[in-house]
Write a structure and sequence with these properties.
Length: 395
């Protein structure tokens, strides 16, 4: 009897000890789901457990500004170095030329993170970035992406300017009548995503060998290709890939157009856009499928739960910054604060930005207020600010 009691006591103590040693990282008060990966949701893992070397290829018109803002904030919070363009390049690394390290400001070396616009150049980027850098990019469904580009770059891109009545249908009926492959800004009019990835925008999408080699090339370098239509799901996959916590992926949507300047696309237009941008369409379909495979390896319900947790945390943060779930959205031209006015390609394109309601934020600590400001700061201003602070640190 006594032996049995001692044995049971031994089993109980061993079990407790096992739990303490193996379960100690679980915050028992956190929602904990059976079979879901148990990364902590809240700050817990210290920085050296997180991946801090990240190259994000910022593609055009794909919610990539929101991603860039998130990476800038992560870098600032953790004193990391972000490679930034030399001043003469503005806020881009010599785009549309291929990226080279000559475009990188010397005060921003050696980098942990790189995210400003560039045309991808694997060899040059790998020479610049640490060996354990995680490569990420983002794609968006080509028809909505192209419609966005057509409006946004209308006065920038000669192929679009030539369309007399400015109609997308007219352009798509005979794209080769308006489009010239080698002229300035032609990349906004044909397979922009493929171009940003360093591929040949004018290569025929029917060349199966080229398409397969391109898909394989992108897949080999990029650990994650996010998909704009599933932005939150992509962020959850990213968080697991980088061992980041929930706070690291909080964001506000940036660089949006006013809803009433968006064109509704008929099924005919969707297929015309996809066939004109067939390389982009192949890339998108392939990497959308690949994202959903990655989501299922985490378990769709686990990802959905984290998406929900992300949205709740976002709402809480919005409330603390703006006392509303949505900060006041304004046309860029109406935004008085220079730090918050987004860049507009022309006065005819209505880009929306946010304004901090001064009286609401008076009460929060200056540190919290700074976070609120950074969350909605457009890329041009944020890039300038980071360059200043990193240059100070460099000296
Ligand atoms: C556990 O989570 C709660 C709620 O988020 C938090 O307040 C607490 O500090 C966490 N405890 C530990 C040990 O991380
Ligand atoms: C970042 O640097 C500042 C100033 O040098 C320091 O106060 C802060 O603790 C650092 N933060 C981290 C996360 O290392
Ligand atoms: C633009 O012009 C084309 C022919 O030149 C015509 O078919 C089309 O209906 C016009 N579209 C608009 C929106 O005016
Ligand atoms: C992306 O892939 C998923 C899963 O295969 C599919 O259900 C969805 O329709 C795709 N989305 C788009 C926009 O093509
Ligand atoms: C915040 O919002 C609530 C409800 O909408 C309102 O009652 C309150 O006065 C607001 N506070 C501030 C500081 O704006
Ligand atoms: C903040 O200022 C705006 C405009 O001046 C005003 O309408 C609003 O009531 C003010 N809110 C608070 C909480 O004082
Ligand atoms: C400011 O903070 C104090 C204390 O936290 C609170 O009582 C007060 O309602 C807040 N005022 C506004 C305008 O948010």
């Amino acid at each position: 009897m006594v032996q049995k009691k001692i044995f049971l006591l031994f089993v109980a103590v061993s079990t407790l000890s096992f739990l303490l040693h193996h379960g100690i990282r679980l915050n028992i008060t956190e929602p904990f789901y059976l079979n879901c990966p148990s990364l902590p949701l809240h700050p817990g893992p210290d920085l050296n457990l997180k991946h801090t070397n990240v190259a994000f290829l910022k593609t055009h018109k794909t919610a990539s500004s929101t991603m860039q803002n998130l990476l800038f904030r992560f870098a600032e919070r953790n004193n990391l170095t972000v490679a930034l363009p030399v001043q003469s390049c503005g806020h881009q690394f010599g785009y549309p030329q291929y990226f080279t390290s000559h475009f990188v400001h010397p005060h921003t070396l050696p980098p942990n993170i790189i995210t400003n616009h560039m045309r991808f150049n694997k060899a040059e980027l790998q020479r610049l970035m640490p060996a354990d850098t995680v490569y990420i990019t983002i794609l968006r469904e080509p028809s909505t992406m192209f419609e966005s580009s057509f409006t946004y770059y209308h006065h920038y891109c000669p192929a679009f300017q030539r369309v007399a009545n400015g109609s997308l249908e007219t352009f798509l009926a005979e794209p080769w009548r308006y489009y010239q492959p080698n002229e300035k800004n032609s990349m906004y009019a044909h397979n922009t995503l493929a171009f940003d990835l360093g591929l040949d925008k004018d290569h025929s999408g029917d060349d199966e060998q080229y398409v397969q080699a391109s898909l394989a090339g992108v897949e080999n370098v990029f650990s994650l290709v996010m998909i704009a239509e599933y932005f939150d799901e992509s962020l959850v996959v990213l968080r697991h890939l980088l061992s980041w916590d929930l706070n690291d992926i909080l964001y506000f949507k940036l660089n949006m157009r006013n809803e009433n300047v968006k064109t509704n696309l008929t099924p005919g237009l969707v297929s015309a856009i996809r066939s004109w941008n067939s390389l982009d369409a192949r890339l998108y379909d392939y990497f959308n499928a690949s994202l959903w495979r990655q989501i299922s390896t985490h378990g769709q319900t686990c990802v959905a739960r984290e998406v929900q947790a992300l949205r709740q945390a976002q709402e809480k943060l919005m409330k603390s910054c703006f006392n509303e779930t949505n900060p006041p959205l304004r046309s860029a031209s109406q935004i008085k604060n220079n730090n918050l006015r987004p860049w507009q390609p022309s006065s005819k394109v209505d880009i929306m930005g946010y304004e901090l309601p001064a009286n609401v934020t008076q009460n929060v600590s200056s540190k919290a207020q700074e976070l609120c400001l950074k969350l909605i700061m457009p890329e041009v201003q944020y890039t300038k600010l980071l360059l200043q602070s990193q240059s100070l640190r460099y000296r």
